[in-house]
Amino acid sequence: MSQERKGAATFKGNPITLVGPELKAGDAAPDFKLNKDLLNEVSLSDYAGKVKLISVVPSIDTGVCDAQTRRFNEEAAKLGDNVAVLTVSVDLPFAQARWCGATGIDQVVLLSDYKAKSFGQAYGVLIQELQLDMRSIFVIDANDKIQYVEYLGEMTEHPNYEAAIEAVKKLV
After folding, report:
1. Dihedrals φ, ψ of 132, to 5°?
2. Which residues are annotated as catalytic?
3. H-helix or E-strand containing 140?
4. Which among 151, 85, 89 is positioned nearest to 115, based on CA atoms?
5. What is the Cα–Cα distance from 114 to 117, expressed in whole angstroms?
6. Rounded Cα gap, residues 149 and 42, in angstroms
7. Nearest of 122, 54, 130 to residue 90 by alpha carbon
8. What is the C-alpha to C-alpha distance for residues 63 and 79, in angstroms, rounded to an integer?
């Protein structure tokens, strides 16, 4: 049975329930299965040996999520080939591909948690009431240990971009 964290965050000031554990720096990164497109899945092992910055957004078609993904796309080009920058949402792969094409995003890999929402549950970001993943940031080292975590308290706020980028830079 999944752990529920009632009132762990808010959406426009209203309490929401997050499903799954609250991960911390030092924890082993849970494995995941996410869709790269409709048929092809990826897991944590597909990024073995790389530092991973995982940016989680509720829906790519909203203002803050759009800005968050664009910001990490800009930063990704400066971080080098040993860093994988992933954006995770429950948007369908079609919507993610359309958005990337329309915005010219080419450094960040968009991955979908739409099928089983297993990433959301494993990383403690699945919003029970909305069935979306809560905005959050995870930096995972090349040995799959979490080095930085930011769970946002309010879904509509921006993450601390600078702290996440600094956490990645310390690992490369």
Report:
1. -120, 165
2. 65
3. strand 136-140
4. 89
5. 6
6. 21
7. 130
8. 25
Q: Where are the alpha helices (DSSP H) in 4-138?
A: 63-79, 93-103, 118-122
Q: To which H or E segment does residue 165 belong?
A: helix 161-169
> pTM for the whole thing?
0.94
| Cross-strand bridge partners of residue 53 | 85, 139
Do residues 89 and 112 lie in contact, with contact meaning Cβ atoms separated by under 8 Å?
Answer: yes
Residue-wise pLDDT for 97-154, tens only, equals: 888 878 878 889 999 999 999 999 999 999 999 999 999 999 999 999 999 999 999 9
Tokens representing residue 76 in the block:
């990704």
pLDDT tens digits for range 22-74? 999 999 999 999 999 989 999 999 999 999 999 999 998 888 888 888 899 88
- What is the distance between the alpha carbons of residues 117 and 78, in angstroms, rounded to a whole number? 31
What is the H or E stretch that residue 167 is in? Answer: helix 161-169
